[in-house]
Amino acid sequence: MTMWFKSQFLAFDQKVDGAISFFVRHYGKTRFMVAMSKKAQYLGLENLFLKGPKAFVYFFLFYLIRDTILYIIIPIGLAAWVD
């Protein structure tokens, strides 16, 4: 049953050009963050900083805020709510 559901999901995802799996992989990221992640992967962080220090700072601030909310604030709030 699980394999059937997975195959149906993947078939539908292919029909919409992988939009669902892209959304799941990049949930909470802006287009800017996705583009900067790709640039950071192929340029390296030092070259990325040298290309545009302002964009580099924005990139890390966005990630810092997003990750703080997703991985620190939400779990602590959930634990406090459950307890």
What would your notes on this structure say?
The chain is mostly helical and 83 residues long. 86% of the residues lie in helices and 0% in strands. Helix 3 (31-43) packs across helix 4 (45-51) and helix 3 packs across helix 5 (53-82). The longest helix has 30 residues, at 53-82. It is flat, with a radius of gyration of 18 Å.
Q: What is the topological layout?
A:
Elements: H1 2-15, H2 19-25, H3 31-43, H4 45-51, H5 53-82
Helix pairs in contact: 3-4, 3-5, 4-5
Q: Return Rg in Å.
A: 18 Å
* Main sheet record: none
Helical run tally: 5
- Shape, per Cα inertia axes: flat
In terms of DSSP E residues, the strand content is: under 5%
Order of helices and strands: HHHHH
Structural class: mainly alpha
First-residue to last-residue Cα separation: 35 Å
Average pLDDT, rounded to a whole number, is 80
Helix content: over 70%
Low-confidence stretches: none
Number of strands: 0
Summarize the structure.
With 83 residues, the protein is mostly helical.
What structural keywords apply?
83 residues, mainly alpha, 5 helices, 86% helix, flat
